[in-house]
Amino acid sequence: MSRLIATACLALAHVGHTAVYEASPNDYRQSIKQLRAGDTLLLAAGEYQEGLQVHGLSGAADRPIVISGPAQGAPATFVAHAGRNTVSIVDSGFVTIRNLVLEGNNVPVDGVKAEGHARWAHHVTLENLVIRGHGNNQQIVGISTKCPAWNWVIRGVTIVGAGTGIYLGNSDGSAPFVAGLIERSLIVDSIGYNLQIKHQVARPDLPDMPGGESTTIIRHNVFAKPHAGSAEAARPNVLVGHFPREGRGADDNYAVYGNFFYQNRYEALFQGEGNVALYANVFVNEYGDGVRIQPHNDVPRRIVIAFNTVLARDAGIVVAPKEGVPLLQQEVVANAVFAGVPFATVQGSRNVEAPLESASSYLKRPLSPLGELDLHPSGKWAPAASGDTTGGKSLPDWELDFDGVKRTPRGIGAYAGNAGREAWRLQLERKPGGSAKGGLDAARR
Questions:
Q1: How many domains does the chain have?
Q2: Burial of 78: CB neighbours in 10 Å, binned 0-12, 13-18, 19+
Q3: Residue partners of 61: CB distance under 8 A and separation at least 6
Q4: Which phi and psi angles does 89 have, rounded to 5°?
Q5: 273 — alpha (psi -120 to 50), left (phi > 0) or beta?
Q6: Which residues pair with 78 in a beta bridge?
Q7: What is d(CA 309, CA 364) in angstroms, rounded to the nearest whole number?
Q8: Where residue 390 falls among pLDDT bands split at 50, 70, 90?
Q9: DSSP H/E element including 31
Q10: Measuring CA to CA, which residue among 293, 292, 294, 197 is closest to residue 249?
Q11: Residue 163: inside a domain, yes or no?
Q12: How many whole angstroms separate alpha carbon 88 and alpha carbon 106?
C-alpha cells in the first residue's frame, strides 16, 4: 500500500482536504484510485509495467491533481506493453502529469492518449516528459488526443523518433483540440509529423468548452527532422488545420512564434490553413521548402506571416489560396527570406529576400552546422528596407523577437539585432525557459 505522508492541508477554508502520496512500481495503481482534487502522487524511481490510467480523475482549477516522477536523478519509467496505450486519459480534467520517461520499445502503442471513447479531457498538463521508442510505424504517436480536448498544456516534452510526435484531434475533424498551449518542447526525427493539429468540423456543445474566440499557442519549440521522414508518405514538420467554418470556434486563431523549424528531406517545414499568425520563427531547410500556406481540408483565411527568418533550398514562403476563394486577410511583412524562390504568390511589404547562397551577406553564420549556426543579422541592412512597418497586434508576445528581446521599430526577420546574453544557440535541445530541461542526450539515455 502506498504511504500517506501528508493530509489535511487546510491553508484556506475553501481549499478542502489535500493529500500527498508516495508510491512505487508495486503499489501505484491503488494510489491513483484515491486521488481527489488537490492531491499529489509522487512516484519513486523505477520501472512501471502496468501503464498509467488517468480515468475519471477530477481536479479543480485551483487544486489540480498532480502525478509526478522524480524531478532529478533516476527517473520513473513507464514501459510500453502491447494492447494498451501507456498513459491513458479518459473523462479527466485539471490533471498534471510530469517528470516521467515513457519507454516505447518499438511496441505499436501510443505514449500518451486521450482515448477515442472518452467524452472529453480538459485542463491536462503534460510537463517534462521524455517519450522515446514510439516509432514502430507512422501511425504510432507520442502524444495523441482522440476526444474533445481543451485547455491542454504540453510543456518541456522531448519526443525522439516517434511515428508521429504529437497528433491532436481526429482525422475526420470530430475531436477538436481547443485553446491549447504547446511550448518549449523538442520533437525530433518523427517519421510523419512532429506536430499535427487536425481540422475541426462543428464544435460539440460540451460544458466548460471555450465558446468564444480562443487561441492555440505554439511557441519556443524545436521541430526537427534531420534524419527521418518518409518519401512515400511525406509530411511537414508541423501542420495546423482549420477551425470550424462557422459557428462556435470559427474565429479561433493559431499563434505560432519563437519556434525553430529544422530540416525536412521530403516536405515543407510548416503548413497551415484557416486562421494562422506565424511570427518570430526560424526556419532552416537545406532540402526543400520553408513555409506553405495552402488548402488542406479547407482554405487559408486570416494569415499573418511576420518577422521570420527563413533559409530554404526551394521555396521560402508560399501563400496559395484556393482559386476563386480570396483570403480574408493576408499580411506578409518584415520577413528575411533566403531561398531558391524566396516568395511565391505572396503579397507583402518590407520583406528582405535573396538567394540562399547570398545569406552570408546578411546573416552571421548561415551556412554553419548546428551549434555554430547563427542567423543574427551581420549588419544594419534591415532598417534600410523599404515599405511600411507593421503595426502592433493583439497577439501574445508580438513585440518580442526569437530570443525574447523587444523588437526594434524597423526590425526585419526573427532577430531584433545582434546576439546578446539572451541569445539561444540553434541546436537540437529544448529552448531554455520555464521548467524545460534536457535534450537528445537525456532522451537517449
A1: 1
A2: buried
A3: 94, 123
A4: -120, 125
A5: beta
A6: 48, 102
A7: 13
A8: low
A9: helix 28-34
A10: 197
A11: yes
A12: 18
Give the range of the structural domain holding residue 241, as residue numbers without chain letter.
Answer: 80-357+388-444
In three-state secondary structure terms, 387 is coil
- Indicate the DSSP class of residue 63: B
State yes or no: pLDDT of 443 exceeds 70.
Answer: no
Would you call 406 exposed, middle or buried from its count of C-beta atoms within 10 A (0-12, 13-18, 19+)? exposed
CA-CA distance, 217 to 168, in Å (whole number)? 13
Lowest mean pLDDT among 70-84, 276-290, 315-329, 357-371: 315-329
Choose among 237, 299, 291: nearest CA to 264. Answer: 237
Q: How many Å apart are CA 95 and CA 125, to the nearest integer?
A: 6
Q: Residue for cell digits 539561444?
A: 424
With a cut of 50, say whether residue 93 has pLDDT above it: yes
Is 23 within a domain? no
Judge whether 59 lies within some domain: no
Task: Mean pLDDT check: name the lowest of 8-22, 33-47, 230-244, 341-355.
Answer: 8-22
| Grid coordinates of 18 | 489535500
Name the grid cell of 64.
Answer: 489540480
- Contact status, residue 143 vs residue 165, Cβ threshold 8 Å: yes
Q: Are 98 and 125 in contact (CB under 8 A)?
A: yes
Q: Is residue 51 one of the residues assigned to a domain? A: no
400: cell is 518580442
Cell numbers of 8, please?
489535511
